[in-house]
Design a protein that fits this description.
globular; alpha+beta; 125 residues; four-stranded antiparallel sheet; Mannose-Binding Protein A, Chain A
């Protein structure tokens, strides 16, 4: 279970928390869900910046609660809803079916990546 002894931030209606641990996408998602939340999912620039503050604090890339759907190159929130906000690097996403997860870099921009990399766990509640 995710111990909330790390940092906690409020943004809009959400509470964001990180335990500072780096794990693969599935493990990050499981730890967030077991704590009663889900992976941090930016729905606007304010939320993206709040998630970015964790990425900068730990100086580690983080998985977002966004995955590639059935159509290669088309990403959606892990609850299945279409993206209403994005912050992709230019020419991203470019994995076309091979990179199904989304990383946030230390400048707040996104890139599609494989899901087996070790990234910072940031949950939202």
């Amino acid at each position: 279970v995710l111990a909330l002894t790390g940092k906690i931030r409020e943004v809009g209606e959400k509470i964001l928390a990180s335990n500072g641990k780096e794990v693969n996408f599935e493990a990050a998602l499981k730890s967030c869900e077991s704590a009663g939340g889900t992976l941090a999912t930016p729905m606007n620039e304010e939320e993206n910046n709040a998630i970015l503050s964790f990425v900068k604090q730990y100086n580690r890339y983080a998985y977002l609660g966004i995955k590639e759907g059935e159509t290669p190159g088309k990403f959606k929130y892990i609850n299945g809803m279409p993206l209403n906000y994005t912050n992709w690097y230019q020419y991203e996403p470019n994995g076309k079916g091979k990179e199904k997860c989304v990383d946030m870099y230390t400048d707040g921009r996104w890139i599609d990546r494989k899901c087996n990399l070790y990234r910072l766990t940031i949950c939202e509640f």
